[in-house]
Write a structure and sequence with these properties.
The protein is of the alpha/beta class and 385 residues long. The protein folds into two domains: 197 residues, Glycogen Phosphorylase B (Rossmann fold, 3-Layer(aba) Sandwich), CATH 3.40.50; 174 residues, Rossmann fold (3-Layer(aba) Sandwich). Helix content is 45%, strand content 15%. It contains 15 helices and 13 strands. Strands 3-2-1-4-5-6-7 form a seven-stranded parallel β-sheet, with helices on both faces. The chain has a six-stranded parallel β-sheet with strand order 10-9-8-11-12-13, with helices on both faces. α8 runs parallel beside α9 and α11 crosses α14. The model has no long low-confidence stretch (mean pLDDT 93).
Length: 385
C-alpha cells in the first residue's frame, strides 16, 4: 500500500497539528511496515521529516490554507501513484482521484466563528464538503465525534475515534534539580503555575489571568508566578492589556514557544498545570503534564473530562472563582497534590502513539477494502446488465 501524508503545514507551524503529524509518522516508521509512505512537504522545508526505509519525501508547491490550494493540489498529486491520501489538516483536495482520509481535530471554528480571521474562515468554511468527500474521518475524541454528527450531519459509521498521546519525552524527572534548571534557564521561582498553548481567545487566557489575580488577592500566594508557554495568536493584545489592567506584570511570565526539552522541564518543575480552555478537540497539554507527574486543572467542557477522567481537577472555565480555588488547593494541599500526581501518571499510560498508528492504519485498510467491495459490486451489476 502506498500512502500519501500531507505534511506541508509542518513548515509553517510547529505545534498542534504539526506535532500530531510528526508523532503519527514516527510511529508508522517504528512499526517497520511494508507499506510505503510518501510524505508531502512544503517546497521550502528542505530536510526530509523522516529518513526511514519506507518513508519517502516529496515536494509540493501548492500553498497551505490558500484559495489556490484546491486548484493546484489535485494537479500536483497526479504525479504520484497513491493508493490513499491522508490529510492531517482538516481539508483534503476535494477532487482527489484516490481515496482520502482526513483528521478533524476539533470544530472550534464552528463553536467560535468570531475568533477567526478572514483567511481562516475561508479555509475552514470548506469543512462541509471535506467531510462529505472523505472516505473516512479521524477525530481525537468522542466529544469531537458528537460535534461532527450534530453540527455537520456526518454518519457515525464514517468517523473513527483515535486518541492522541503525550510524546515519550514527557516523563517524571528529579523535581529539585529540574526546578533549579528552570530557575537558571527561565528565571522562574520555585513555585509557579504553568499554562501551555497558543495565546488566543479560545484558550481562555484572560479568564485565567482574572483567576490568578483572585488567587493572589484572596488566598495570598505572593511568591507564586503564572508562566505562559506558547506562541502568540489571534487577539493576543487583549491578554497583555489584561495583565496590565490587573497589575500582574511582575507575576506573569510570557515564555513564548519553547522546545520539547524546555517544555519537559517546565512541566516537571511546575507546582501545577492549568488548562482553562473554552473548547478542545482533545487537549494534549494536560496529558503531557500528567505524564510528567504534574497535577492538572482542566475545564469541565468538550473533550477534556473525557481525556483526564478523575485524574485532574475539573473547573467551570467561566468561573474565575472555581479556577482560583483549584489552583489554591494544589498549592496548599500536599495530600491532594500527591493523589492527583499519582492518578495523572496512571491515566497518561492509557495513551500511546503506537496504538494511534495501528488504529490509523486499520482505517486506511478499511477504506481500501470498502472501495474494492464497491468496485466489485459495480462490475457485477454491469455484467448482469
Amino acid at each position: 500500500m502506498r500512502i500519501g501524508v500531507d505534511a506541508r503545514l509542518m513548515h509553517h507551524h510547529k505545534a498542534g497539528i504539526s506535532k500530531y503529524t510528526w508523532h503519527l509518522l514516527q510511529a508508522f516508521a517504528n512499526l517497520n511496515l511494508d507499506d510505503e509512505f510518501i510524505i508531502f512537504q512544503h517546497r521550502e522545508q528542505r530536510e526530509p521529516i523522516l529518513t526511514r526505509g519506507n518513508m519517502r519525501r516529496a515536494t509540493l508547491y501548492a500553498p497551505v490554507h490558500s484559495r489556490l490550494e484546491q486548484y493546484m493540489l489535485p494537479l500536483e498529486l497526479l504525479r504520484f501513484p497513491l493508493d490513499l491520501l491522508h490529510t492531517t489538516d482538516f481539508i483534503q483536495p476535494l477532487y482527489a482521484r484516490v481515496p482520502t482520509v482526513i483528521t478533524v481535530h476539533d470544530l472550534a471554528f464552528l463553536h467560535y466563528p468570531h475568533f477567526l480571521t478572514a483567511s481562516s474562515a475561508a479555509f475552514y468554511g470548506q469543512i462541509d464538503r471535506a467531510v462529505r468527500a472523505a472516505d473516512a474521518v479521524i477525530v481525537p475524541s468522542e466529544s469531537t465525534l458528537h460535534d461532527l454528527v450534530a453540527m455537520l450531519g456526518v454518519p457515525r459509521s464514517k468517523i473513527n475515534v483515535i486518541y492522541e498521546a503525550a510524546a515519550e519525552v514527557f516523563v517524571p524527572l528529579p523535581i529539585a534539580e529540574t526546578r533549579a534548571a528552570v530557575q537558571r534557564e527561565h528565571g522562574l521561582p520555585a513555585s509557579y503555575i504553568l499554562c501551555v498553548g497558543t495565546i488566543e481567545p479560545r484558550k481562555n487566557i484572560t479568564g485565567l489571568l482574572h483567576a490568578f489575580a483572585l488567587l493572589r488577592s484572596r488566598y495570598g500566594a505572593p511568591d507564586t508566578v503564572l508562566a505562559l508557554a506558547g506562541g502568540t495568536g489571534w487577539l493576543y493584545d487583549e491578554v497583555t492589556e489584561t495583565v496590565a489592567r490587573l497589575g500582574l506584570k511582575d507575576s506573569v511570565r510570557f515564555l513564548g514557544r519553547v522546545s520539547d526539552e524546555a517544555l519537559h522541564k517546565l512541566y516537571v518543575g511546575a507546582r501545577c498545570h492549568v488548562h482553562p480552555a473554552h473548547y478542545e478537540g482533545f487537549g494534549l497539554p494536560p496529558l503531557e503534564a500528567m505524564a510528567c507527574g504534574t497535577p492538572t486543572i482542566v475545564s469541565n467542557v468538550s473533550s477534556l473530562p473525557e481525556v483526564v477522567q478523575d485524574a485532574a481537577l475539573l473547573v467551570d472555565p467561566n468561573s474565575h472563582e472555581e479556577i482560583a480555588v483549584a489552583m489554591n488547593r494544589l498549592l496548599t494541599d500536599d495530600a491532594l497534590h500527591a493523589e492527583m500526581r499519582q492518578k495523572g501518571l496512571q491515566r497518561a499510560q492509557c495513551f500511546s502513539w503506537s496504538r494511534a498508528a495501528v488504529e490509523t492504519l486499520e482505517v486506511y485498510h478499511n477504506v481500501l477494502a470498502q472501495r474494492a467491495t464497491v468496485g466489485r459490486k459495480t462490475v457485477s451489476a454491469t455484467e448482469e446488465q
